[in-house]
Specification:
13 helices, eight-stranded mixed sheet, hydrolase, oligopeptidase activity, alpha+beta, 677 residues, globular, 36% strand, 39 strands, Rossmann fold, protease
Length: 677
């Protein structure tokens, strides 16, 4: 199927002047419609001012008593890495010490650099690897930096730009999986080898190869676990696909040994000599079957043939999922999604038995782990819901004592609105949860402009979050916001995801359309007032639904989307998603992909809503050609379509606040025009 003629394949080029000219013309046409709207400029200014409001919570990572934060403002559009003490942070002080200035680094090098991350050496945290990407893409270089000296380390560790995986092992060595040009890469464009790189005083660092992935692997990664009670452990993860993998232990002689875990299992932590393992498939081990969706404590000695036993910490349940796991000095903390709301459980080892206990945290909204300082009992987490601003909390897991370090200011008057969980019925009878945020006095006559957001893939859950900008610029203008928790996501564990995986992908489209129909049946909205939005896999979702059920929607915001499902494996990281979607090289799977591939399902005589497609020239994960070709094909067949392609930002929008404000303002103006005017 992938060999079908593609008249717009030329738009996949990233440097052809004719392609760049075509993109510029599309941008000009869209900006003439949106940026020229009288609402755009003041909206963009308001959003930018909100982003730069110093009362916003400065999230941090704590290392050796310092709180480190990445900050952008009008004086530092690329950002600074800065630090403060806990006492100053508690006092609400705005006095920060700058330790890394990305604007200055970019100017000095003459590069379009954005910060992709700062990796502290855990046991010597003023030594860091600074990851810098050009244009905000996934590929980044990594150079060693001394935060105390505020300078690059002379003869320090330096690695070229690539989709590398690099992890500190100790202050004088790192585990490196090379993804730069010239390195042997997998079909997906990711690393295939693991090397130990040890520091040498003359800068000629010593390289030793530890592992080579089998042919056909998707990628490798390696890192060190520091267990305060059981020393250190070096581990390699060799992924055969997006979900299947093998783990390999690196021993003291730098030899590797595979661990007998199932292919669809994730090691979430290592504590007291035990792996904390999340299962996405059943695992039969020594006569006991552990079910998919379980969280297990698995002693390393037991896996290597010694004593010990596997203990189940969390049993699977129909409306339960494991969102994330963190370990403190002595406890395992599990963030559970219970009917699409968060709650925390701690597990402590008493003798040979793990014992659970509840933690005194809010349970009516969403918790996200924010930081866990190494070798401490401290865990920082954020808590929010649709209408309550985010709070940042510092919890002592051992004692249960906690404090609210910061509270985000309210962006709008939430008293006028209500957030409620509702349920739609999918065509196969399954109940699909969704959340509605609307005015308390909403009249159910179908007249409310409504934005429906969804994702539905990769076992990623859609959870409530504070709708700060949408509260002020959408809810207060009479709109409603809806978040759909469709299959393909991770709201209810691996089975919820696998129900829409591979050739079953259209299940997520059916779920999303069922939510849209439920909104209309409830009287909230109507087809002329309903818009849909999604990004990446969510872009595939909304585009597919637009083509399947165009009569349901008036507006479609399709961001950094995946749209050509017959060539996606040939573009950038696309081959890494074969486990999620299926392989177009397989005739049976290709037929299933072609049946919903948005790029191939456009009909010349249909009536589609005017859709807004967004992408980035520096998106090196989902190729910008997806959005470009989709717009070209729509226009070729007589349908109007809008495209905005930014020069920077990459797949995750890693750009300055100015561009972020511009992008959100355009989306809002588009929604105003389509649903409110």
């Amino acid at each position: 199927m992938s060999h079908l003629p593609d008249p717009h394949q030329w738009l996949e080029s990233l440097d052809d002047p004719a392609v760049l000219q075509w993109v510029a013309a599309q941008n000009s046409r869209t900006q003439a419609l949106l940026d020229a709207d009288a609402r755009y400029a003041p909206l963009q200014r308001d959003i930018l001012a909100h982003l730069r409001d110093t009362r916003q919570i400065p999230f941090f990572s704590e290392h050796a008593g310092w709180l480190y934060n990445f900050h952008q403002d009008e004086h530092h559009p690329r950002g600074i890495y800065r630090r403060s003490t806990l006492a100053a942070y508690r006092a609400g002080s705005q006095q920060w010490q700058t330790v890394l200035d990305v604007d200055a680094l970019a100017a000095e090098a003459g590069k379009d650099w954005y910060l992709d991350g700062v990796a502290h050496c855990t046991v010597a945290p003023t030594r860091v690897l600074v990851h810098l990407s050009e244009g905000g893409g996934d590929a980044s270089l990594a150079w060693e930096y001394d935060l105390e000296a505020a300078a690059w380390v002379e003869q320090g560790l330096r690695f070229p730009k690539g989709k590398n995986h690099i992890a500190w092992r100790d202050p004088d060595s790192v585990l490196v999986c090379p993804g730069w040009q010239g390195a042997p890469l997998t079909r997906s464009g990711y690393p295939s080898e693991v090397w130990l790189v040890e520091r040498a005083a003359d800068g000629q660092h010593q390289w030793q190869q530890l592992f080579v992935a089998p042919k056909g692997a998707m990628m490798v990664a390696a890192w060190r676990y520091l267990d305060g009670t059981d020393g250190v452990l070096d581990l390699i993860e060799a992924a055969d696909g997006f979900y299947s993998k093998t783990y390999h232990l690196i021993d003291a002689e730098l030899q590797t040994r595979p661990l007998p875990l199932p292919a669809r299992a994730d090691i979430e932590g290592y504590l007291h000599g035990q792996f904390i393992v999340k299962l996405a498939e059943d695992w039969s081990w020594q006569g006991v079957v552990h079910l998919a969706g379980s969280l297990l404590a698995v002693p390393l000695d037991h896996l290597l043939g010694g004593d010990g036993r596997v203990q189940c910490l969390v049993q699977p349940a129909p409306r339960l999922a494991i969102e994330s796991v963190e370990t403190t000095r002595s406890s395992v903390v599990v963030n559970l999604i219970d009917n699409v709301r968060s709650r925390l459980l701690a597990f402590d080892l008493h003798g040979a038995q793990w014992q659970p206990r509840s933690l005194p945290v809010p349970d009516s909204g969403v918790i996200e782990f924010a930081d866990q300082p190494w070798d401490s009992e401290v865990l920082c987490y954020s808590f929010s819901d649709f209408l309550n601003p985010t709070g940042l909390y510092r919890l002592d897991v051992a004692s249960g004592q906690q404090e609210c370090l910061r509270q985000q200011p309210a962006a709008f008057d939430a008293s006028r609105f209500v957030a409620e969980q509702c349920w739609a019925t999918a065509p196969d009878g399954v109940a699909i949860p969704y959340f509605v945020v609307r005015a308390r006095d909403m009249v159910p006559d179908g007249s409310t402009p409504t934005l429906l957001y969804g994702y539905g893939g990769f076992e990623v859950p859609m959870m409530p979050y504070y709708v700060e900008n949408f509260g002020a610029h959408w809810l207060e203008k009479g709109g409603a916001f809806v978040l759909a928790c469709i299959r393909g996501g991770g709201e209810f564990g691996p089975a919820w995801h696998q129900a829409a995986q591979g050739v079953k992908r259209p299940v997520s489209f059916d779920d999303f359309c069922a939510v849209a129909e439920a909104l209309m049946a409830s009287g909230l909205t109507s087809p002329d007032k309903l818009g849909i939005e999604g990004g990446s896999n969510g872009g595939l979702l909304v585009a597919a639904c637009m083509l399947r059920r165009p009569e349901l929607f008036k507006a479609v915001v399709c961001e950094v989307p995946l749209l050509d499902m017959l060539r996606y494996t040939e573009l950038l990281a696309g081959a890494s998603w074969i486990d999620e979607y299926g392989d177009p090289a397989n005739p049976e799977e290709a037929a299933a992909l072609a049946a919903y591939s948005p790029y191939h399902q456009i009909k010349p005589g249909a009536t589609y809503p005017l859709a807004l497609f967004t992408t980035s020239a520096h998106d090196d994960r989902v190729h910008p050609g997806h959005a470009r070709k989709m717009v070209a094909r729509l226009q070729e067949l007589g349908h109007a379509a809008l495209l905005i392609e930014t020069a920077a930002g990459g797949h995750t929008g890693n750009a300055g606040q100015q561009q972020t404000a511009e992008e959100l303002a355009r989306v809002l103006v588009y929604l105003y025009q389509q649903l409110m005017d």
